[in-house]
Amino acid sequence: MRFAGLSAPSLMIGSGIATLAAVALIVVHAENPGYLLASLALGLLWVAILQTRRAHRADGDRLARLAELDTRRADQASVLSHEIRTPLAVIQGAAELLAEESAGPLTPRQAMFVRRIEDNAVRMHTFSEQLLIRARLEAGLFSVERSKIDLRVLFRNVVEELAQISAATIVLDAPGAPVGAEIDPQLIRQVLINLINNAASTESASGRVEVRIVPGEGEVMISVSDGGAGMSPEQRERLFRRFSSGKPLGNGTGIGLFISQQFIELHGGRIYVDTITGKGTTMMFTLPLEAPVSATAASEGGRNRRPVSHG
User: Fold this and answer.
1) pLDDT in tens, 46-105
2) What is the C-alpha separation between 136 and 210, in angstroms, rounded?
3) Of 78, 101, 210, 258, whose CB count within 10 A is highest?
4) pLDDT tens across 96-113, in order?
5) CB neighbourhood size of 69 (10 A)
6) How far apart are CA 311 and CA 300, in angstroms?
7) Closest C-alpha to 254, from 240, 234, 274, 270
8) How far does the chain reach from its first CA to its final CA, in angstroms?
9) DSSP states of 103-133 as a string?
10) Does pTM surpass 0.70?
């Protein structure tokens, strides 16, 4: 028998009829213990079915409300991010014009203040983007759009781009043949940028950040190493928590690492940390070379994906 398709009123009517039938059987066959037990069992069965159905409906309604709240929160984060980015773009543009001395020459002290304005505008822009991405992740609005990518080419482009604007020396160690993997290049690019920026900004860093690609059987291991101060066990414990980081309290939000972990897990990979206090930190993550069958099906299922801005 199948009861999942019955409505609550139908179950209530059925439960009432079953109860009446059970009472009738008890009255008619009161002298027969077998009929008595069967009738009681029949009544209890319908009561249990009704209660289960009510519980399932309550769970479904609760899940629907939670999904709606997640979507609304993502929409609100999108509006907030837009409202923050608009004035930030004006501030950043004005600071860049001042830095170029378009409005006239600057004293060294004035130039220092302009650079500080520009740097903090960029940081706030990045922070607003990360808040938006996190809200979309929690609302389930991301799916992986995979394509066959040579990781060496992708990572070389990222390293060359960041090396031009970073004070640290960033090098890529990826000898050998091309490493092809079915990934979402936008998401993995953002992961690598987050990890390199974290390594380059580490206090007491040696000034060198190494990125390595190590192919394996069915997967590839990527590592980003720095020569900084490392992390204590307490910092490592809270590393991937939202609004926390491996740096001392007050330095960084940790949202970038949380997002990186989510992007990697969406690909079917894992992220690890190897750190020793005073000896530096190595962040490692794995990626499957081929898309899992379940991931391919989910991607073709048409889940909505909103674009991510990496500006």
Assistant:
1) 677 777 877 777 777 777 676 666 666 656 666 666 677 778 888 888 888 888 888 889
2) 31
3) 258
4) 888 888 888 989 899 899
5) 11
6) 28
7) 240
8) 58
9) TS---HHHHHHHHHHHHHHHHHHHHHHHHHH
10) no
